[in-house]
Specification:
alpha/beta, globular, 229 residues, 18% strand, 8 helices, 12 strands
């Protein structure tokens, strides 16, 4: 699904996605988009930040509030870091800044959908995984901490799950960016830091002094058991 108030851009994006074999739906304003999201339940949404009616951030926020965990690639005409960070904090999985290459956007779409498909295939046979105080239910995309369900976006779930499965190992930034976002370079490391921060807010008693997700300076992150000294 493509949502943007520039009709020519929507036609360009949908034309290229259709050429790649995707079925597309589209909307030119936020209110129509919100109705269409609930009706069509798309596999992925390309969502402009600035829209008439509901803007992109409102749509992200409302989707996550209602536990609609459809992957979102956010489009923004602003090259301001704060807009990207806010979009990620509201639940977007990735972002592309205008002007952009349609080929790059199509590649991002394919990568997100491929990861989603591969992830579902890998976890299909696993019903429940216990790691310390955490329980993963892959079929439902759910993680529990001390039997309490965590309110995670899809990308937060994927990131926490890979950290949990690699307990005690340092996972480098470049590796996490490549696996979860298909970023080949660490220039986009901010997207990772924002998601780590959001997860810490949800699992740590004190997110400034985390027990579970440790920052390994110059390398990346490591999940630890979180046992008090």
């Amino acid at each position: 699904m493509v949502v943007d108030d520039e009709e020519a851009l929507v036609r360009l994006i949908t034309y290229n996605l259709n050429k790649e074999g995707f079925t597309t739906a589209y909307a030119y304003d936020g209110n129509s988009a919100w109705d269409l999201i609930q009706k069509e339940k798309p596999d992925l949404i390309i969502l402009d930040l600035m829209l008439p009616g509901k803007d992109g951030l409102e749509i992200c926020r409302d989707m996550r509030y209602e536990n609609i965990n459809i992957p979102i690639i956010m489009l923004t005409a602003k090259d301001d870091e704060i807009d990207k960070v806010v979009g990620l904090e509201m639940g977007a999985d990735d972002y592309v800044t205008k002007p952009f290459s349609v080929r790059e956007l199509t590649a991002r779409v394919k990568a997100v959908l491929r990861r989603k498909s591969d992830f579902a295939a890998e976890t299909e046979a696993e019903s429940e995984i216990h790691i310390g105080q955490f329980t993963i239910k892959p079929e439902k995309y759910e993680i529990f901490l001390n039997d309490q369900l965590l309110d995670l976006t899809l990308k937060e779930y994927e990131l926490l799950e890979i950290l949990l499965r690699n307990k005690g190992r340092v996972l480098k930034r470049d590796y996490l960016l490549q696996v979860l976002w298909d970023y080949a370079e660490s220039a986009n490391t901010r997207v990772l830091d924002v998601h780590i921060s959001k997860i810490r807010d949800k699992i740590e008693e004190d997110s400034k002094n985390p027990r579970y997700i440790k920052t390994i300076r110059g390398l990346g992150y490591k999940f630890e058991e979180g046992i008090d000294a």
